[in-house]
């Protein structure tokens, strides 16, 4: 029982100081599978009609050391793989407000340091059909039921969301970024 107690305390300490270790291992494995899937994306992804669970791209936020594969969908199973694209929002590069959610304390905690992102920081989303570079405009804390952050505005933007504060789902931290550049795809399907 003492060993079990020490392991439980160790797990709790690791979660508080870093992230939940077991879900971190699972997320790492899932990210590897998404990387492989993106190397040979199904035709529906290239044509911008992904199904839930498809790898759709990679989000990179250099200021907080984020480089994660993004999956289509925001269900529990989807977010265990990595950040998830809200299916109700346009895909990256399409007109409107693209939205991506991610965990802060479990499953690799891809958005753990989202609160450290600052105005002017770049966020890049690479997909099989293009590269999209966004510039952070602001960060807000909102109620967990506030969906107004997903609404369309007069320009193309990216919204990143995660639970806030750490270890709680009471609110959401939301990063708003404006599309600044479009470019050719840097993620190439196998055989092209």
Write up what this structure looks like:
22% of the residues lie in helices and 32% in strands. The mean pLDDT is 87. It is built from 4 helices and 8 strands; from the N terminus they run H-H-H-E-E-H-E-E-E-E-E-E. It has an 8-stranded mixed beta barrel with strand order 1-2-3-4-7-8-6-5. The protein is an alpha+beta fold and 192 residues long. It is globular, with a radius of gyration of 17 Å. The chain has one domain (2-183): Sortase (Sortase, Chain: A, Beta Barrel), CATH 2.40.260.10. The chain has helices at 2-17, 21-39, 43-46, 76-79, and strands at 55-61, 66-72, 84-85, 97-101, 122-127, 130-143, 157-164, 171-183.
Annotated CATH homologous superfamily:
Sortase
Q: Supply the number of structural domains.
A: 1
Shape: globular
Q: What is the C-level CATH assignment? A: Mainly Beta
> For the report, how would you describe the main beta sheet?
8 strands, mixed, barrel
- Alpha carbon gyration radius: 17 Å
| Sheet with the most strands: spatial strand order | 1-2-3-4-7-8-6-5
* Coarse structural class: alpha+beta
The total strand number stands at 8
Describe the protein's topology:
Blueprint: H1 2-17, H2 21-39, H3 43-46, E1 55-61, E2 66-72, H4 76-79, E3 84-85, E4 97-101, E5 122-127, E6 130-143, E7 157-164, E8 171-183
Features:
single chain, alpha+beta, Sortase, Chain: A, eight-stranded mixed β-barrel, 8 strands, 22% helix
Q: Short description, anyone?
A:
By secondary structure, the chain is an alpha+beta fold.
């Amino acid at each position: 029982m003492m060993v079990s107690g020490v392991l439980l305390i160790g797990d709790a300490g690791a979660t508080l100081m870093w992230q939940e270790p077991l879900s971190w291992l699972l997320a790492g494995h899932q990210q590897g599978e998404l990387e492989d899937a993106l190397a040979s994306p199904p035709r529906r992804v290239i044509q911008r009609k992904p199904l839930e669970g498809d790898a759709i791209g990679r989000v990179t936020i250099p200021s907080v050391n984020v480089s994660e594969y993004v999956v289509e969908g925001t269900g529990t199973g989807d977010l265990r793989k990595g950040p998830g694209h809200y299916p109700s929002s346009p895909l990256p590069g399409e007109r409107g407000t693209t939205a991506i959610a991610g965990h802060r304390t479990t499953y690799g905690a891809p958005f753990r340091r989202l609160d450290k992102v600052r105005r002017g920081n770049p966020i890049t989303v690479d997909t099989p059909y293009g590269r999209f570079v966004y510039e952070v405009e602001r960060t807000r804390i909102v109620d967990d039921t506030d969906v107004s952050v997903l609404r369309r505005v007069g320009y193309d933007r990216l919204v990143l969301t995660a639970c806030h504060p750490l270890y709680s789902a009471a609110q959401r931290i939301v990063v708003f970024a404006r599309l600044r550049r479009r470019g050719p795809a840097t993620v190439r399907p196998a055989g092209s």
